[in-house]
Amino acid sequence: MGQDAEGVGKITDSMMDDLFLRAASELLRQGSVLSWAALEVFSTDLFVQLLNLVPDLSINLLDDERTNKRFQLRNVALRTVHDFGYDLSKKMGNLFVQRQSIGSTEVMRDVFDVLCPESRPLRTLLQHDRLWLLNQRRNLIVHKRAVVDHFYLAATGEQLALGSTVEITPSDIEVDLHLVRDVGIELLTALPARLTIVDGPAH
Questions:
Q1: Backbone region of residue 110 per phi and psi (left: phi > 0; alpha: psi in -120 to 50; beta: other values)
Q2: What is the distance between the alpha carbons of residues 90 and 105, in angstroms, rounded to a whole number?
Q3: pTM of this prediction?
Q4: Are 97 and 67 in contact (CB under 8 A)?
Q5: How many CA atoms lie within 13 A of 119 on its CB side?
Q6: C-beta atoms surrounding 176 within 10 Å
Q7: Rg of the chain, C-alpha, whole Å
Q8: Phi and psi at residue 179, in whole multiples of 5°?
Q9: Successive 10-residue mean pLDDT values, the chain, 203 residues
Q10: Structural domain boundaries of the chain?
Q11: Taking a C-beta distance cutoff of 8 angstroms, is the pair 37, 178 a contact?
């Protein structure tokens, strides 16, 4: 019994150790970064594959002022054409992401609203305040080592002290993963419907 009590005491001490707590906090912050990364990679891959399969959708993106300003394709370098084997007919998705990353909530909202205007559930999820917060937290953690600055406070409205460190909780990770999952499901529901354009003109 005495040995058991001593073992429990050592575990309790280690949990209170500053280095242990700092490491746990860092792992949670990395979990937040990876939650966003999962959505970014998934949505980018779907975007690329859709435009590669249905290049006519490129016109939709160029005709809409929200996305036209993001994808500047007026002057495509000959080197770029060469790199794609002088055939862009099945590489429009790759060409577009060379010009603009699908790596922020603003870009995702604009791009997928143009590509899937009929999908209200997807639009609602991409406009979710929590998704915006996840993206802003990711940027702060990656670029500012999670140290709160004026830009983060202005972008999120969070009530945190300037110069403090953003803390992520296990509940934050759970909520964010559920949201990322839901966005992924809606993307898989909405984007395949656009493949029907193969048999007819883009709308």
A1: alpha
A2: 26
A3: 0.85
A4: no
A5: 25
A6: 24
A7: 22
A8: -65, -45
A9: 58 71 94 98 96 94 94 75 82 93 96 96 97 98 97 97 97 98 96 68 43
A10: 2-196
A11: no
